[in-house]
Amino acid sequence: MVNDQKTEEFDFEQSLRALETLVSESENGNVRLEDMVKNYEQGIKIVANCRKKLELAELQIQEASNSKSNPTKQDA
């Protein structure tokens, strides 16, 4: 199982590594059913965290693109 650090505190790359670890553990086949369920639940939280971070990054990119293509009078 992935370390007990709150998944919300993971940066995007940490989240991906945590997901890879969970998948690897599950594919190994030596995981108890109860632990697989916990891994699945934790994986769902990590995926939600990744989606939130991706949406935020997309919004920041859109805002940066809009500000570059629509300069204000002060910028001109």
Describe this structure in words.
This protein is mainly alpha-helical and 76 residues long. The protein has one domain (12-68). The protein is 71% helix and 0% strand. The chain contains 2 helices and no strands. It has helices at residues 12-28, 33-69. The longest helix is centred in the last third of the chain and has 37 residues, at 33-69. It is rod-shaped. It starts with 11 loop residues before the first helix and ends in a 7-residue tail after the last helix. 12% of the residues are buried.
Brief synopsis:
Helices cover 71% and strands 0% of the residues.
Number of helices: 2
* Percent of residues in β-strands: under 5%
Q: Based on DSSP secondary structure assignment, what is the total number of beta strands?
A: 0
Instruction: Label the overall shape.
Output: rod-shaped
Number of domains: 1
Mean of all residue-level pLDDT scores: 87
Q: What Rg is obtained from the alpha carbons, in whole angstroms? A: 19 Å
**Percent helix range:** over 70%
Distance between the termini: 54 Å
Largest sheet: none
What topology does this entry show?
Elements: H1 12-28, H2 33-69
Helix pairs in contact: 1-2
Q: Could you name the key traits of this structure?
A:
mainly alpha, 76 residues, single chain
